[in-house]
Write a structure and sequence with these properties.
This protein is of the alpha+beta class. The chain has one domain: Factor Xa Inhibitor, CATH 4.10.410. The chain is about 35% helix and about 15% strand. It is built from 4 helices and 3 strands. The radius of gyration is 15 Å and the shape is elongated.
Length: about 70
């Protein structure tokens, strides 16, 4: 049985939480551009990761990045 190819942008956008739970995490929206006019406190706010609660998204990510669980990041 051949290996399944990983969707690279999915593997870069999502991580698993550290610890025993291993929840799917994503970055906050609005981090990528237009940050020059924002206050430092708001920029730090974008660095946090958020837990993905939607089961449909978790299923889609598991299909696109099947080895994300094994990678451990």
């Amino acid at each position: 049985m051949p290996k399944i190819k990983t969707h690279k942008s999915t593997s870069k956008r999502f991580r698993l939480s550290k610890g025993g739970k291993g929840k799917l995490m994503r970055t906050k929206v609005g981090k990528s551009h237009l940050r020059r006019k924002k206050v430092k406190r708001v920029k730090r706010f974008y660095d946090e990761m958020v837990v993905v609660d939607d089961k449909a998204i978790e299923k889609r990510v598991s299909r696109l990045a099947p080895y994300l669980r094994e990678k451990g990041n």
